[in-house]
C-alpha cells in the first residue's frame, strides 16, 4: 500500500482543504491567456468550416457501440475537412457565455481550458507533412516547422507500445495535447491537477467518437517519452508539457 498511497490520495477530492486556500483568482492576479500567443508573421492555414456533411455515421448509439482503439491504418489520407472536424470536436469553440468564457465542444472544469493542441501531420490532403498547432479561436492551423525523419521521431516519442509496436507513425495524424497548468491553478490551486486529468479524458473520448463518425479510427497513447516530445515541440516541461497523445487514421479494411 505504501508506494500507492500518495497517488491514491491524489485521486480523491480535496475540496475541504481547497476551501481554505486563497487562490490567485481571489487575490486578484491577472487571468492567464486562454491561448498561447503567436507571431503575426506565422504561416496560417484556414480550416474548412465544420458542418455535418463530413459525418458518415451519425447514430450516436452505434458510435459508442462500435468505438475501439484502432492501431492498424490504411494508407489513405484524411481530408482537410475531416481534420477540421476532428479539431472542432476536441477543442472547438461553440460560443461564449455572458462572462466571456469560451464554450467548447468538450466539458472543462470552470472553463479553464488548459490544453494546446499540437499535430504531427503525416498524411492529410493539401497539408505538407510537419508540426502544426491548432488555434481554436480562429479555427486555423499554425505551421510550426518541418520535422526531419518524422517516422523515426514518432517511433522514438511513442516508445515500445505493448500491443502493436510502431503503430503511431502509420497514422494520418498524431494529436499531442499539452497542458498549461496555471490556467487551472489560477482558479483551482491545489485542486487543479486532478481536474486537468479529468478534462483530457473528455477530449480523448470526443476524438474517439468523432473519428468513428467519419469511418476513421483513433487510439489514445499514454506511453511516450516526456522529455523528447516536450523538446521536439519546444515546451519547457514545467509551465507547459505534453499530457496525452492520440493517433488517428483511416481504418485498414
How would you portray this structure in words?
This protein has 8 helices and 9 strands. The protein is an alpha+beta fold and 253 residues long. The protein has one domain (45-250): NADH Oxidase (3-Layer(aba) Sandwich), CATH 3.40.109.10. The strands form 2 sheets. A 7-stranded antiparallel β-sheet has the order 1-6-5-4-7-9-8, sandwiched between helices. A two-stranded antiparallel sheet has the order 2-3. The longest helix has 22 residues, at 192-213. The chain is globular and about 55 Å long.
How do you describe this structure in short?
This protein has 253 residues and is α+β, with helices and mostly antiparallel strands.
**Percentage of residues in DSSP E strands:** 15-25%
pLDDT averaged residue by residue: 96
What is the general shape? Answer: globular
Order of helices and strands: HHEHHEEEEEHEHHEHE
Q: What key attributes describe this structure?
A:
253 residues; two-stranded antiparallel sheet; 8 helices; NADH Oxidase; seven-stranded antiparallel sheet; alpha+beta
What layout of secondary structure does this protein have?
Layout: H1 2-11, H2 15-18, E1 44-46, H3 60-66, H4 80-91, E2 93-96, E3 102-104, E4 115-121, E5 130-135, E6 140-145, H5 150-158, E7 173-179, H6 182-188, H7 192-213, E8 216-221, H8 226-233, E9 241-250
Antiparallel strand pairs: 1-6, 2-3, 4-5, 4-7, 5-6, 7-9, 8-9
Amino acid at each position: 500500500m505504501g508506494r500507492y498511497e500518495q497517488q491514491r490520495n491524489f485521486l480523491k477530492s480535496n475540496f475541504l482543504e481547497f476551501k481554505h486556500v486563497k487562490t490567485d483568482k481571489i487575490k486578484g492576479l491577472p487571468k492567464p491567456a486562454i491561448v498561447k500567443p503567436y507571431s503575426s508573421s506565422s504561416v496560417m492555414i484556414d480550416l474548412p468550416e465544420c458542418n455535418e456533411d463530413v459525418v458518415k455515421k451519425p447514430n450516436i448509439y452505434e458510435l459508442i457501440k462500435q468505438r475501439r482503439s484502432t492501431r492498424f491504418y490504411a494508407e489513405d489520407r484524411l481530408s482537410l475537412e475531416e481534420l477540421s472536424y476532428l479539431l472542432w470536436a476536441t477543442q472547438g469553440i461553440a460560443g461564449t457565455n455572458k462572462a466571456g468564457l469560451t464554450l467548447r465542444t468538450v466539458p472543462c472544469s470552470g472553463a479553464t481550458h488548459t490544453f494546446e493542441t499540437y499535430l504531427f501531420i503525416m498524411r492529410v490532403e493539401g497539408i505538407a507533412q510537419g508540426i502544426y498547432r491548432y488555434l481554436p479561436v480562429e479555427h486555423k492551423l499554425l505551421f510550426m516547422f518541418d520535422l526531419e525523419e518524422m517516422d523515426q521521431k514518432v517511433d522514438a516519442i511513442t516508445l515500445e507500445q505493448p500491443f502493436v509496436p510502431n503503430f503511431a507513425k502509420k497514422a494520418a495524424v498524431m494529436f499531442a495535447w499539452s497542458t498549461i497548468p496555471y490556467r487551472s491553478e489560477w482558479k483551482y490551486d491545489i485542486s487543479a491537477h486532478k481536474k486537468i486529468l479529468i478534462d483530457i479524458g473528455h477530449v480523448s473520448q470526443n476524438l474517439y467518437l468523432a473519428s468513428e463518425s467519419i469511418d476513421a479510427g483513433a487510439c489514445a497513447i499514454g506511453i511516450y517519452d516526456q522529455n523528447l516530445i516536450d523538446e521536439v515541440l519546444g515546451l519547457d516541461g514545467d509551465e507547459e508539457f505534453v499530457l496525452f497523445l492520440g493517433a488517428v487514421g483511416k481504418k485498414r479494411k
